[in-house]
Specification:
Elements lengths: L8 E7 L1 E2 L11 E2 L6 H19 L3 E9 L7 H14 L1 E12 L3 H4 L2 H7 L3 E7 L3 H6 L6 H14 L2 E8 L6 H15 L2 E6 L7 H7 L8 H17 L4 E3 L2 E3 L6 H7 L3 E5 L4 E6 L2 E7 L3 H11 L3 E7 L1 H12 L8 H8 L5 H10 L2 E3 L5 E3 L7 H9 L1
Helix pairs in contact: 1-2, 2-4, 7-9, 12-13
């Protein structure tokens, strides 16, 4: 996982629609009971890509990520039209990673070969659990068997694939999670994203949790589940390369590394965020979240951007610290100093070293330790102060 490529440029495309809203989800996703006019949305994506490319000038795209929402609700020709638009306005590297997020329902899995023909070369499946009771409680529409069937189809259609699981679910024990994880790793081949269930405001789970109808693991049990995750994945050859992501060496998600390494990416579609370097200034962009409002805005003026902030050196350095310390490879303190104009406080580094929360390698990179990752927010806040 080379950490020295500053030339990466990613394109994130947000498809905002889902068949249903999961009770834990606070992403920008919307359920529409009427048919979606995919051709109209595809034209709008192409228009916003063109407008964004005018701003950035020439770039070589190293990764594309179609996220959501549920991108696998798109027809393969819609995906193809979006990828064609990206290729028309920027140069796409011959080895570019092109990922599509997919639900593992049997209907969506039938489209996998169409996505491959359209140019997708990696799929990320939202499996979330390997037993039907948990899937039902998480509001998922697929069964465990459907999920495994979809994984098998993904394995046959794509050279690279990944899937997500949620742990720290109600009534889950470390032994149960380890058994589930071992099955998952046997199916995953090269990459897994493993997220602790978090109760996000303004979700149905938040209301249930406040009413005492949803019991989540306490701090000690959550830590035990985290420790099982790290130990089992490391033992079976998928060590953590980021706090929630595990991969065999060389199989890391290259697009997500763009985010975590503080590199450049364009955000296209409703509610998409971007980080663009224009004229030596880092722009933090965000588009209109509501799909129909975004669509009308793009049709009227070529883009859906509603926020375009210039990040100052301190903001950019803090973002670099916040994202970079999520990675097992850590950060280069020299890059932090170049961005912020000041070095990290040696006294704070010494204290965190003494506490075992961070380590400094022979290469000079500063890394958060396994002991430090469960308190990552506190470590970042301490270093940034």
């Amino acid at each position: 996982m080379p950490a020295n490529s500053d030339q990466a440029f990613g394109v994130y495309v947000h498809w905002p629609f889902c068949l249903s809203k999961c009770p834990y989800c606070d992403f920008n996703s919307h359920v529409r009971h009427a048919a979606i006019d995919e051709e109209r949305f595809a034209r709008a994506f192409a228009r916003e890509i063109a407008t964004t490319a005018e701003r950035t000038g020439p770039r070589e795209v190293t990764s594309i990520f179609l996220g959501g929402g549920t991108p696998s609700l798109m027809q393969p020709q819609t995906v193809g039209a979006v990828l064609d638009a990206i290729g028309k306005h920027w140069r796409v590297a011959p080895d570019a990673e092109v990922t599509l997020e997919a639900n593992p329902t049997s209907v969506e899995a039938t489209r996998f070969r169409g996505y491959r023909a359209a140019g997708v070369n990696r799929v990320s499946l939202g499996v979330q659990a390997l037993d039907d009771a948990s899937l039902k409680s998480l509001g998922r529409l697929h069964t465990a068997q459907e999920a495994m069937d979809a994984v098998a189809i993904a394995r046959s259609a794509f050279d690279r694939y990944s899937f997500d699981l949620i742990y720290a679910r109600p009534d889950q024990t470390p032994a149960m999670w380890e058994a589930e994880l071992r099955v998952a790793i046997g199916e995953a081949a090269e990459h897994l994203s493993l997220y602790q269930l978090t109760i996000e405001p303004e979700t149905p789970f938040y209301a249930m949790h406040r009413a005492g109808k949803l019991k989540t693991p306490d701090e000690n049990l959550a830590r035990a589940l985290y420790d099982v995750t790290q130990a089992t994945c490391a033992e079976l050859g998928l060590p953590a390369y980021e706090i929630s992501n595990h991969a065999r060496p060389g199989a890391e998600c290259r697009h997500n590394l763009v985010y975590w390494r503080g590199q450049e990416y364009a955000g296209v579609g409703p509610g998409a965020h971007g980080r663009l370097d224009i004229g030596g200034v880092r722009h933090a962009t965000a588009t209109e979240r509501r799909p129909e409002s975004w669509l009308m805005r793009v049709e009227a003026c070529g883009q859906g951007v509603i926020t375009d902030d210039n990040l100052n050196s301190e903001e950019r350095a803090d973002e670099f610290l916040l994202m970079g310390l999520r990675l097992a490879e850590g950060i280069d303190p020299q890059r932090y100093q170049a961005l912020s104009g000041r070095s990290l406080d040696p006294a704070r580094i010494a204290l965190l070293l003494d506490e075992g929360a961070i380590a400094v390698g022979a290469d000079g990179r500063l890394r958060v330790t396994q002991a430090g990752f469960p308190v990552l927010d506190a470590v970042v806040a301490d270093l940034a102060a």
